[in-house]
Every structure is written in C-alpha cells, then in structure tokens.
Sequence to fold (430 residues):
Amino acid sequence: MNDLIAITGVVVVFLPIVALLGRGATRTERLALWLSALAHFLAGLAMVFLTNEVLGGGDMNGYHKFGAAVAGLARQDFWAVWPHLVSLLTLSGEPSPFRGAIEGSTTGAMQAFASLLMLALNDSLWAAVVLIAGGACVSKWLIYRVCSEELPAQRGLPLLLPTLFVPSLVFWSSGMLKEPLALVGFGWLLFGAYRLTVQRRWWGLPLAGLGALLVLALKPYWLPPFAVAAALWQGSRFVARSKRDLLGSAGAMVFTSAFAVALVFGTGLLFPEYELDSLEEQILAQQAIGTRVTGGSGYVISGVSVATAPLSLLTALYRPALFDVKSAMMGVNALETTAFALVSLWVLLRRGPLGSLRATLASPPLVFASVFTITYGVAVGLATTNYGTLSRYRLPLVPFFAVYLASLARETQRAPQRTAPRALRLAPKL
Fold:
C-alpha cells in the first residue's frame, strides 16, 4: 500500500509537468510525449521487477537499502544527518557515519541521492524509479526540442523516435542508478547551453550549470566529450553564419569554447583520474580487471592506441551483436544494435563515405552528434569489459547517434528556418 500511495503521488505531480511541456507542441509531439512518459514509467517498474525477481538483486537494491537506512535516521534528526549527506553529494571525501558509505566517489553521491529519494518517498523504490524515469523522459524531450529547432526539416517522428523511443534508452534511463540521474542533468545541460549560446537567453546559464553539476557528481567523464562536441558545434555555426552575424557568432563561439575548456579542465581538476595524462592508465586498469573476470557477456579490447580506437567505437555502437547473444537480455540489446548496424550500412551505401562526411560538415547539429558519438563511444568501448554494462554506459550517446542516422537517412535536408517553429516558441518559454 505504501508503494501504491507513493507512486500515485509521483504520477499526480508529474502529469501537469508533461501537460505544461506539451503546450504549443503539435498533436503528434504531444502524443509522443505522453506515450514516452508512459513507456518510461512502465520501464522503471519492469526494471525493479527484473532486478528483484529475475536477476536476484543489483546495484539498485544496494542504493535502496542504503537510502532507506539513512532516511530513517533523517526522520529522527534531519539536521544532524544533512551535513553528512552534503559531504557525500559534493564528493568531499570526509569520513561518513553511515554504514556502507563510499566517501569521495560518484557512488557515494548516488547513495546520497538515494537517501533523499527514500526520505521524500517513504522508502518506496517503486516510486523512486517512476520519479527518475519521468525526469529522464523530460530530459529527452529537452534534447528533442534542441534537435527539432536545429533540424526543422525533420521535426516530428524522424526526431521523436530517436530521442524518445529507442528501447535501450527508455529502459536503462528508468532505474535508480547513476546513469539515469546523470541523463536528467545532461538534458538540462544541453538545453540550457543551447538557449544561452544560440538564443542569448540568460536563464540558460543556471540551467546548464545545474545540469553540469548533476552530471559532474555522478558521471563526470561524460563532460569532456560533450565539451569538445559543443565547441565544434559552435565553431561550425560560426563558419556557416559568420557572413550574416559576424559579431554575434564570434561571441557565441568564444563563450562556448571557454565553457568547453572549463568543463574539460574542471573535470580533470576535480577528478584526477580523468585527466588526459592519467586517462590511458585508468583505461588499461579497467581492461586488466576485465581479463580477470569471466562471464558470458565479457569482452576485452587490449591497449589504448589509434589502432584500437575504431574497434572500440564499433563495439560501443554495434555490440552485443546477434552472435554474442547468451541470454534473453543480451538478445534484446542485440536486436537494437543490429538495427543500428543495418541503418548505418544503408546510409553508407546510399550516400557513400564522402557524401556522409559532406552532409555532416554542412550541419552544425550533426557535427555535435557525430563528434560526441565518436569521442564518447571510443572511450566507453575501451574502458567497458561487459556487454551488459556497456548497454547502460553508452546511454548518453544513443539519442545523438540515432538522430545522426535518422538525419542522414532522409532523402533531402532543407535549409534551416531562420526562426524556431511556432509550436516551439509558445509557452512554456523554455
């Protein structure tokens, strides 16, 4: 009964948010948003069921157990517990009185988030996954908004399907885990940065800042690839529009470049393991662990070099393949990666490598999508040694890779409109 009440409360709060986000959108967009929200809710509930009843437990159960214990202490004396939660959230590394706390790490930050969720939702894991799933759905809607404004010729289903309905994207973003919560922040970061640099709306800065902080606390290695891709995106916009608005484009490019540099070096400063000098060492350490762990879904790419980069990218994008399947869950993932592989092959046959490259360079959003996909894909393919975790770790690149393929698969691409479509300029003014 407690779970049912908590879930009902989350849904009641979330429904007006979905309705507000859908204001001014087309009928197709509103329907897609509602269906995506439903799919995310069901995926979250399915993840709890599979984790408990099929897999016999997982990381989510550990976060739930920790969060419920700390929430119980907070109900007795919140102000005594709060400083220690802040220490975990900020990765300060200070000793924690909570049993099982992992101080100074992203896992500790996730433990703190789980504690706050359990405190707010009366220890209901089911309600927590519904809340996170809803937040992830909103984040993907914000990604869709940016893509539809940058690629207006493809607004509607060609962008709604890649951003809101890719099965692995829906499923893996709907649990009480680090990746789903980080994806919530990633959507804020992209949307806020776009509103600030492209449309000169000042409120984009705090939104992007909050998103960056959330990603930094949980998945800091997402930020450097994003920063590089964002800088090149803005650079390609500068090249394309310099004749029309030289001063404005130059200013936006300088600001974006400075923002990108700050993200890259700030991440390295706060997390020395992600500095460029030590990144190779970290990847090699992960690969060494992978060679010692046996299992039906394990793989290892040895070494970090130019030669291993293509293999790691192909692994991140297209595996597990059908020949890798050793379980039902791997089979589901393999169907999706096989679909990506077939679409990629079709695009290459239709456009050719040079034609695909020209189409990419001619479109700033496709520059961002391709650069982020490549840089993040190479890193995650090298560092991950298990197909199960790979499906979860590649989460942030999936919508952009899918949008990239969907864009190149279209017969023609009309010139971008000078102003955003009417539906995307109506309230709420995001």
